[in-house]
Structures are given as structure tokens and as C-alpha cells.
Design goal:
Layout lengths: L5 E3 H8 L3 H9 L5 E3 L5 E4 H11 L22 E5 L3 H11 L7 E5 L2 H10 L4 E4 L8 H9 L9 E6 L3 H6 L8 E4 L4 H16 L10
Parallel strand pairs: 4-5, 4-6, 6-7, 7-8
Antiparallel strand pairs: 1-3, 2-3
Length: 212
């Protein structure tokens, strides 16, 4: 039997560990390659799914930061995802975030596709991203995330970039609610942002971090 070179959106979702709606969004965004049958059903190229699975296996090139031995094992850890293609800056993030008093659970990656896969596996409280990234850039990644409304109440996003406001606008801008911090990386402002998210999350009647 010749193996089929395509799969349904449900099969793709099961392989990638995400929802069918996310697979459909990624097809529409061009992240996954697909076509429609005469009956209007999507068929996803298996090669594009396999390529994402390969990226998924390398989504976090550095291990998560260790949790404090004094931290409560019952409290949910504060989760941070950093997207930056400069390996030296990733190591700088790793070193600084290790000193944050809330001892966050941190994952780091160097490209947007791996970041989207990481978000699909588990929503971070804070996503920190560069805008200039290889392949899919940060602008397109943020647009894809902005079309996933279920993330809005749970993820705060900060873009840390060397681009000025004019260049950001020239490249189409970024979705509302995403804060922009200028490089060099302002770790004090990022820490203040993380603390504000935790305060908002722990406020009476609040169940998740605000979008911004």
C-alpha cells in the first residue's frame, strides 16, 4: 500500500497536539500547506506536518530554569516564553530571568514557528519576542496569535525590538494590546510587567493574565 501524503485537519491536529481550529488557522496563515477537496474538506500535506513536528522537537533549545527549592509545589509556576534568534541574547534572558523573585518557568526558542507550537502546547503567562526573526518574522507570528481569541485573557505579549516606531508602522504594525520595549533589553521593565501580571492574576475575580 502506498502511504498517503496528506491528512485531514483532525489527523493533523492529533499529530501536532493542538486543536482543529488552530490547524485551520495555520492553514489559512500559510504555516501548513493544504488544499480543499471538491466537497470543501481540507487536506493537509503530510510533509508540512512532519516539518512542524521536527521544529516541535527543537522548540526549546535550552532547559527550563530550575524552580526555587523554597517555592510552593501547589502554586502554578509563572510561565515565560522568549522568542529571540540571537543565541547570545537568549543566554542573557536565561541568566536574568533566573534571578526573578517569582522563579518563572522559562522556555526559549529562536524562531516563530517553534514559538507557535510551544503556545499550542501550553499557554505562557508572558510571551517576550523579537520582531526580526528568521523565516516567519515576529510581525506575522503576532498576527497569527491575534486571531486566536482564546489566548487573549491568558497571555501578555511584549515585543522587544531594535526597530523604531516608523519602521514598525512601515511593516504593517503589530496587533493592539502588544507592548513594545526598545532594545537593549529592559529587564527591569520586563520584571515589572511580570509582577503586574501576577498581581492581576491573583486579584479577586480574576482567573488569568490580561492580554496586555
Amino acid at each position: 500500500m502506498i502511504p498517503k501524503n496528506f491528512c485531514t485537519t483532525r489527523e493533523a491536529a492529533d499529530l501536532l497536539g493542538m486543536s482543529v481550529s488552530t490547524v485551520q488557522l495555520w492553514v489559512e496563515s500559510g504555516i501548513l500547506q493544504a488544499w480543499k477537496t471538491v466537497g470543501g474538506h481540507r487536506r493537509v500535506l503530510r510533509d508540512s506536518v512532519d516539518a512542524l513536528l521536527q521544529k516541535k522537537s527543537t522548540a526549546a533549545p535550552y532547559p527550563a530554569l530550575p524552580q526555587s527549592p523554597h517555592a510552593s509545589h501547589t502554586a502554578r509556576p509563572f510561565k515565560v516564553l522568549v522568542v529571540e534568534d540571537d543565541v547570545h541574547l537568549l543566554r542573557l534572558y536565561q541568566a536574568h530571568l533566573a534571578s526573578w523573585p517569582m522563579r518563572p518557568e522559562v522556555k526559549l526558542t529562536g524562531n516563530a514557528i517553534a514559538a507557535l507550537l510551544e503556545v499550542s502546547r501550553g499557554t505562557p503567562d508572558l510571551l517576550i519576542t523579537d520582531l526580526h526573526l528568521p523565516g516567519m518574522d515576529g510581525f506575522n507570528m503576532l498576527r497569527v496569535l491575534s486571531h486566536q481569541p482564546e489566548l487573549a485573557p491568558r497571555v501578555s505579549i511584549v515585543a522587544v525590538t531594535g526597530l523604531d516606531a516608523t519602521e514598525i508602522a512601515r511593516r504593517g504594525g503589530i496587533p493592539p494590546g502588544v507592548e513594545v520595549f526598545a532594545k537593549p533589553i529592559p529587564f527591569d521593565r520586563l520584571l515589572a510587567k511580570a509582577a503586574a501580571i501576577i498581581r492581576a492574576t491573583n486579584a479577586p475575580g480574576q482567573s488569568g493574565a490580561p492580554w496586555a
